[in-house]
Amino acid sequence: MGDTEQHRRLTLAAKIQQLRKRPENRRPDGKLKTYRELATECAEVSGEPFSPTYMWQLAKGERDNPTLRHLEALAKVLGVRMSYFLDDTPAEELELALMMRDAGVRAVAARAMNWSPDQKAWLVDLMESIDRREQARRADQDNGNSTTG
């Protein structure tokens, strides 16, 4: 395995951070769940103590050797198989596998398979425009402005 490939592998902390940012792992208002909220959910799932400090340490890379029960709880709370945390697959492959679990993503990918390069470029432009609009909406929400649309 080359040096470059080694650097593209995600740490446990990076995987937790990546999963924490996914829309289905956010609060209903779209904001990130706090480490306290995640720790509480993990404690409920595992039936074992799971402190906010411990959750923060795992997410920041201060600790990287959780117990099997804690890893199982993290996986359940964050919506992945426990093997996701143990897998040594390069980051790009893991991210793609996570995306392809979503039925909507699979439907878009299946339809776009036979499109021309120009059609695919148009779709990417459209998605980037949607992302910018959503980011602006979230920024407005974070600043206390209420926007609908």
Chart the SSEs and their pairings.
Elements: H1 3-7, H2 12-20, H3 35-46, H4 52-60, H5 68-78, H6 83-86, H7 91-100, H8 103-112, H9 117-142
Helix pairs in contact: 2-4, 3-4, 3-5
The CATH homologous superfamily name of the largest domain equals lambda repressor-like DNA-binding domains
The biggest sheet amounts to: none
SS-based class: mainly alpha
Give the class-level CATH name of the largest domain: Mainly Alpha
According to DSSP, the number of beta strands is 0
User: What share of residues are in beta strands?
Assistant: under 5%
Name the shape in a single word. globular
Listing every helix as H and every strand as E from the N terminus to the C terminus, the arrangement reads HHHHHHHHH
* CATH fold group of the largest domain: 434 Repressor (Amino-terminal Domain)
Radius of gyration: 18 Å
CATH architecture of the largest domain: Orthogonal Bundle
Number of domains: 2
Verbal overview:
The protein has two domains: 3-101, 434 Repressor (Amino-terminal Domain), CATH 1.10.260.40; 110-149, no CATH class. 64% of the residues lie in helices and 0% in strands. The chain contains nine helices and no strands. It has helices at 3-7, 12-20, 35-46, 52-60, 68-78, 83-86, 91-100, 103-112, 117-142. α2 packs across α4 (52-60), α3 (35-46) crosses α4 (52-60) and α3 crosses α5. The longest helix has 26 residues, at 117-142. The radius of gyration is 18 Å and the shape is globular. Residues 1-7 have low confidence and may be disordered.
